[in-house]
Structures are given as C-alpha cells and as structure tokens.
Amino acid sequence: MTTNPLPSAEASPVIGVLALQGDVREHLIALAAADAVARPVRRPEELAEIDALVIPGGESTTISKLAVLFGMMEPLRERLRTGMPVYGTCAGLIMLADKILDPRSGQETFGGIDMIVRRNAFGRQNESFEAAVELKGVEGDPVEGVFIRAPWVESVGAEVEVLAEYGGHIVAVRQGNVLATSFHPELTGDHRVHGLFVDMVRAAS
Predict the structure, then answer these.
(1) CA 17, 59, 152: angle at the middle one, nearest 5?
(2) Among 36, 70, 134, 167, which has the highest number of CB atoms less than 10 A from its own CB?
(3) Averaged over 66-90, what is the pLDDT?
(4) pLDDT exceeds cutoff 50 at 49
C-alpha cells in the first residue's frame, strides 16, 4: 500500500485521525491549527490517501475491536512497518505498544514502539488530573498534560527515546517516526505537541 509523497517540505501534510472511537474532533482542530490538512480516517482506502495518522484517546479495547471490524488492523500495521509517521495519545499510546502488561481478553495493538505499557495506570475516570509536563522537543513552558484514565510506560527498548516523565513514570516516547503520549494535549488549546508531530511528518517526507 502506498501514499503520494508530499510535493515539498513546505507543503501542508495530510494527516488523518483514526475515527473509530475517541476524541477525534479535538485532534482535527489541533492538527489544522498546526498547519496540517486534517481528515477523519475509518477505512483502508482512506488510510492510503494520508501522509500520517493520529490515534486518539478513547478506550483501547474498543479501538482494537473496531479496527478489526473495519478492516484497519493489518493495513495500519503495514503502514507503520513502512515508516508512516503516527502519533498516539492515551489509548493511542496503548495501541502503539508492542506489549500491554495487562491486556483485556482478545485485545490487539498496532505496535510500532518497543515498549510495555500499563493500562489505567494513573487511576480511574474520577482520578483524572492535569499536570505540567516538560516535554523534550517542545520549546517554551511545560506542556499542560490532561491525564484521563491514563496509561504509563513501564519499560522501553534501546531504540525508544523517552521524551517526558511524570511522577517517576514515562509518559511520552518516540521511536523513529512514531510518537506517543499518555496525556491529551488536544484538550488544552496548546497545539505545540501537534506542531512537533507535524514537523516530524514534514521531516519524514
């Protein structure tokens, strides 16, 4: 499966948001604010037309089941294998992990980052919180991280770069063209993390 290359490094990249479940609209707005052409993606033919993809927060087991139902699991894995930039937030981070420490029965991931993650590690819905996070690659003040039933990264492989920690736990990582955060920057109105991802997409082109 192939996609058309960007005409130049200055062109606005076409970035999809996996629209199976979760906070899709907020990511579309944040990507547009970061100078990308943003569109929802639900089917393999739509996946073939984008330069990069965001996997939003939501419920990782539901995203896993719907990805299989919509025929997206294998095409997305193939795009990851061939270097498509992908950014996952919260449940999206779980979906990008090569291994989940405590998976639900039958739960699958797309993979892409050599890491082990723990679901709901920061607590349940009523224990959600916001915190300032120093994120490598983002200039200026710390990023305001919104943690909602958030996972954390238990461990990473040698090729994974840790971009941020909070409370002694890894909450942001990057491996090649794949970026993931435990928190939701799309809910804050601060589009710097999406800007970082758009820069990654431009560099990959």
Answers:
(1) 95
(2) 36
(3) 97
(4) yes
Encoded tokens for 40 = 């929802």
Classify the C-alpha dihedral 123-133-62-68 as positive or negative. Answer: negative
What 8-state DSSP symbol labels residue 4? Answer: P
What is the pTM assigned to this prediction?
A: 0.92
The rounded distance, in Å, linking the Cα atoms of 134 and 128 is 19
Average pLDDT of the residues in 41-47: 97
On the 0-12 / 13-18 / 19+ scale of CB atoms within 10 A, 100 is buried
- Residues belonging to the active site: 90, 184, 186
| Rounded CA separation 13/121 (Å) | 34
SS3 179: strand
Using CA atoms, how far residue 62 sits from 20, 38, 114, 151, 154, in Å, is 9, 23, 22, 16, 22
Question: What letter represents residue 176's amino acid?
Answer: G
- Tokens in use for 135? 């994120």
